[in-house]
Design goal:
Oligomer: single chain
Distance between the termini: 10 Å
Largest sheet: none
CATH superfamily: MetI-like
Helix content: over 70%
Strand content: under 5%
Radius of gyration: 24 Å
């Protein structure tokens, strides 16, 4: 068992390292084949050509492409992620990212936890009532929600809240700093929660529906297994059979889906954060695209890729412990 675990873990680490290197390579070349000259974004039109060449040399863009690539790989792992060309001109990218990362982690973390919790309950109840009115309505609703683009939920919420509660905050992660700093800790928590409520609700609906459909399908399959029939023949309570015997096995596919959902939520935050001016990584990505700030885009993409790969790696390790078939 210990040897099997070490071998499984070692293979996953090797695959993870190779994947990260390949994606970093793609990430490097992707932005260098885009048209335009990023150096000119640092200076107004008509800037002295000698100044442009000087900065091209300072930023390492005059070096051969292979040398730029080597420096990019080394810099990524040593914290030297370059300088912003457009969004925050001439500021180190490593200093720009932390506040944006914090906001996105909060938004995506809360959204994922709520989506999993509510989606599991939703799918469980639909599967338990398979073929009944509740199941048909719940499944149809989940399919519709899963089909709607995330940003439409955001626009819908804005219209509803603007009509019902026009004073509700629709922009930013907090109130303006001069107001936020004057609040006590309890008021600050309420303020953060209010600003995050609509973005989180916009993010979780589609994800929640996906979890619900997967749990329903998985649980329906589990409920036909022989050990469930044996439990029923022993006279166990139906709810005990559901909670103690059926659900633990039905939730195994959800572990993998949670990992995939991390990537979906990280991508979904781009439009949501921009609509609500919630300045996380999604908002930063959009701004970097507008400014053609490819060093910043490289850094953001790398972080998002690492988040998805790490989530999938953790899911693989959890599956090893939860599912005996993986050990075999």
């Amino acid at each position: 068992m210990a040897r099997s675990m070490r071998g499984y873990f070692l293979r996953k680490v090797i695959y993870l390292g190779i994947t990260v290197l390949l994606i970093m390579t793609f990430n490097f070349f992707l932005f260098r084949i885009m048209p335009g000259d990023p150096i000119r974004l640092l200076f107004p039109r008509g800037a002295d050509p000698d100044t442009l060449e000087l900065w091209r040399g300072l930023l390492g863009l005059d070096k051969p492409i292979w040398e730029q690539y080597f420096n990019y790989i080394i810099g990524t792992f040593t914290g030297d992620w370059g300088i912003s060309f457009g969004f925050a001109k001439r500021e180190p990218i490593f200093d720009i990212l932390p506040p944006f990362i914090t906001k996105t982690l909060f938004l995506s973390g809360v959204g994922t936890v709520l989506a999993v919790f509510l989606g599991v309950i939703y799918g469980r109840e639909a599967a338990w009532r398979k073929g009944k009115i509740f199941d048909k309505v719940a499944t149809t609703t989940a399919v519709v929600l899963y089909s709607v683009p995330t940003f439409l939920f955001a626009l819908f919420y804005i219209m509803i809240f603007a009509f019902i509660i026009p004073t509700w905050p629709f922009q930013g992660a907090t109130s303006p700093s001069y107001l936020f700093d004057s609040m006590n800790i309890f008021e600050q928590i309420i303020d953060v929660a209010q600003h995050a409520f609509l973005p989180v609700m916009s993010l979780i609906l589609e994800s929640l529906a996906g979890f619900a459909l997967i749990v329903r399908s998985s649980l329906i399959d589990v409920l036909t297994e022989d050990y469930i029939l044996t439990a029923e023949a022993k006279g166990l309570e139906e709810r005990d059979i559901l909670k103690k015997h059926a659900m633990p096995n039905a939730l195994l596919p959800v572990v993998a889906v949670i990992a995939l959902n991390v990537g979906w939520i990280m991508g979904g935050t781009v439009m949501i954060e921009y609509i609500f001016t919630y300045k996380g990584l999604g908002y930063l990505t959009w701004e970097a695209i507008l400014y053609y700030d490819f060093p910043l885009l490289q850094a953001v993409f790398f972080l998002e890729i690492v988040a998805v790969l790490a989530a999938n790696f953790i899911a693989d390790i959890l599956n090893f412990y939860l599912d005996p078939r993986v050990k075999i």
